[in-house]
UniProtKB/TrEMBL annotation:
It holds the Pfam family Acyl-CoA_dh_N. Keywords: Monooxygenase, Oxidoreductase. PANTHER family: ACYL-COA DEHYDROGENASE, ISOVALERYL-COA DEHYDROGENASE, MITOCHONDRIAL-RELATED. Residues 406-427 are annotated as: Disordered. GO terms for molecular function: 3-methylbutanoyl-CoA dehydrogenase activity; flavin adenine dinucleotide binding; monooxygenase activity. Residues 44-123 form the Acyl-CoA dehydrogenase/oxidase N-terminal domain. The lineage of its organism: Bacteria, Bacillati, Bacillota, Bacilli, Bacillales. It comes from Paenibacillus silvestris. Residues 242-379 form the Acyl-CoA dehydrogenase C-terminal domain. Transmembrane segments: none annotated. One of its GO terms (biological process) is L-leucine catabolic process. This is Monooxygenase.
Length: 427
């Protein structure tokens, strides 16, 4: 019957296949060049352009606003497929989709309409949020200040994922005494310097390096207060990572099956004359496929919780809204601890089914583990497990946002300052 791409189950909705078929030719095109880009450090400008041209960045917008009206499970299903093609591309768009959620949750008004138009026209948003160095936890050195008749932005950021491909940059900054805001500036604005100096061993094409701002002008209407953060925004951001991991595991499963099917060399102490007939080798391939299946199923299940949190925004029941967001945060944390391990195990195990030739740099099979390890290092699993355990044992509200830094030890939720609350499901 030939080689199968894998059995991953049906999509998250009746509409999913029709939605996905719009993008699968582009995903395939991206997949075909993935190893070449990896080996030659060819940045993703062309691939991002292809996705922009087919409207991928607009899929969460309603049809009335120029999008496709995709639900969150549908979005994450598509991100799994894109990540199977090239996980760098998904991560490069992570902040864009997070910003779209922020806009979708704004109240009706001129600001919301302006950004919906920009997104519908294909404009892409990157980020400059994180700083490295001597900052204390919760502090941001980048400043937004008044200079004569213009707001000006000054600072240096790192982990600026996707910004090198973006039209706009979301920048976290301190305004005034301690007020932290988001300033959105054009990537081509005066004083912006985007440096491709990301030197991690994985996700090498995401542009996750330095962005500098020197007296960069900011329009007052494009300054967002902390209150505009989406409550489920952290869960959403983690879900993009999880969808990326699930896609990586599928790609590894696909490639190991193809490599075993083509392999002719074997060992004197093997269980069969061909690798494709060796039960021990087939067992490895089957386990990797099963791990990839489990990772994808968990991601799509967790996506349902984030969809409930999104829909809860229309509820007038504050207790239900809080519960929906807490449940989403905990479900995603639970998913993260398992999907990460499934993917790391699967991407390492593929070499057990292949010979030493599989380690040839030209094959690029090592990129799967490197990329997965890089993504799973963003938010330590040990903290997620503790948070889940604290919720399960004590009903402690999980933190909805956090920051990195030195010195100041704080468990406070960066959106509300409070997470030590015993929670019960709404009646």
């Amino acid at each position: 019957m030939g080689i199968h791409e894998g059995v991953w189950g049906i999509g998250p909705s009746d509409n999913y296949t029709k939605l996905a078929e719009r993008f699968r030719p582009t995903f395939l095109r991206i997949r075909e060049g993935a190893v070449h880009r990896e080996l030659n450090r060819k940045l993703l400008h062309e691939e991002i352009h292809w996705l922009r041209a087919c409207g991928f960045g607009t899929i969460r917008l309603s049809q009335e606003d120029g999008g496709l009206g995709a639900t969150l499970p549908e979005l994450f299903g598509l991100l799994i497929e894109l990540s199977e093609a090239d996980s760098n591309v998904t991560q490069a768009l992570r902040i864009h989709f997070g910003f779209v959620e922020r806009i979708l949750n704004l109240p009706d008004g001129e600001r919301r309409e302006r950004w919906l138009r920009r997104i519908a026209e294909g404009e892409i948003v990157g980020n400059a949020l994180t700083e490295i160095g001597e900052n204390k936890v919760g502090s941001i050195a980048t400043t937004l200040s008044q200079a004569e008749d213009q707001l000006r932005l000054n600072g240096i950021k790192f982990y600026s994922t996707g910004t090198i491909y973006a039209d706009w940059i979301v920048v976290s900054a301190t305004a005034g005494e301690d007020d932290i805001v988001s300033a959105i500036v054009p990537a081509a604005a005066e004083g912006v310097d985007i440096v491709d100096d990301w030197a991690g061993f994985g996700q090498t094409l995401t542009g996750s390096g330095t962005t500098k701002f020197v007296n960069t002008p900011v329009e007052r209407q494009d300054v967002f207060a902390r209150e505009t953060y989406t409550k489920y925004g952290t869960a959403f951001a983690q879900m993009v990572h999880l969808a990326t991991l699930a896609g990586i595991s599928r790609a590894a499963a696909r490639d190991v099956a193809a490599a075993v099917a083509e392999r002719r060399r074997t060992y004197s102490h093997a269980s069969a004359d061909r690798a494709g007939e060796d039960p021990q080798v087939l067992q490895v391939v089957g386990r990797v496929h099963s791990q990839a299946y489990a990772a994808g199923a968990i991601v799509l299940k967790a996506a349902e919780a984030v969809q409930r949190a999104y829909e809860a925004k229309t509820s007038e029941d504050a207790e239900y809204v809080e519960w929906a967001n807490v449940e989403a945060e905990v479900e995603v944390a639970q998913a993260q601890t398992i999907v990460a391990r499934l993917t790391l195990e699967a991407t390492a195990a593929i070499f057990d089914a292949l010979g030493a030739s599989a380690t040839a740099r030209s094959k690029g099979l090592d990129r799967y583990w490197r990329n997965a390890r890089t993504i799973t290092s963003h938010n330590p699993l040990i903290y997620k497990e503790r948070i889940v355990g604290d919720y399960a044992v004590n009903g402690t509200r999980p933190p909805f946002a956090w920051q990195t830094g030195i010195d100041a030890r704080s468990h406070a939720d960066q959106t509300t300052g409070d997470n030590d609350v015993r929670l019960k499901p709404p009646s």
